[in-house]
Design goal:
Blueprint lengths: L1 E3 L1 H5 L4 E8 L1 H4 L6 E2 L3 E10 L2 E15 L6 E15 L11 E3 L4 E3 H12 L31
Parallel strand pairs: 6-7
Antiparallel strand pairs: 1-8, 2-4, 3-5, 4-5, 5-6
The structure holds zinc ion (2 copies).
């Protein structure tokens, strides 16, 4: 979803509600992660005293593969995000709170996907104390014991 920001930038008090799903086709492009469902986006973009604020929450179910035992699992995630939208940054700061928009348009899908991926750990485990696979015989130590370690 691409949102036109022209009115939001120009009119103090202007507000746009966000309540939609990021299409599956956008999610398929993300390598290494699977999504069992579209990402639900809920929030609003508001011009408050000339500052354009984006606040939203993103909810999704990630389909992942345990980094230790290779079991596949689904997990619910929900994150809240806040950004200030600007046409340009004068002070050269690159605070990730700021989002610089081109041509007064915001690619909300791209922003949401980027925000969500930044929150995810680089390694996903099926459970905190996953025992993983035996490095010698490959037995899933969550399910069975093996005799490799005596
Ligand atoms: Zn595991
Ligand atoms: Zn073993």
């Amino acid at each position: 979803m691409v949102i036109s920001l022209k009115h939001l930038y120009d009119i103090v008090g202007e507000r746009v509600e966000l309540d939609y799903f990021v299409e599956d086709s956008k999610l398929n492009e993300i390598k290494g992660y699977g999504f069992s469902r579209p990402i639900t986006i809920k929030g609003a973009i508001v011009n408050r005293a000339g500052v354009v604020m984006l606040k939203y929450s993103a909810a999704f179910i990630l389909h992942a593969c345990c980094d230790r035992c290779l079991t596949e699992f689904d997990r619910d995630y929900g994150f809240d995000f806040e950004h200030i939208l600007v046409r340009s940054l004068n002070n050269g700061g690159d605070d990730e709170e700021y989002v610089i928009t081109e041509s007064d348009k915001l690619d909300m899908d791209e922003l949401a996907v980027t925000d969500c991926l930044l929150q995810l750990p680089s390694k996903l485990l099926c459970k905190e104390d996953c025992l993983g696979l035996c490095p010698v015989c490959g037995t899933d130590l969550n399910q069975n014991e093996c005799n490799c370690n005596g």
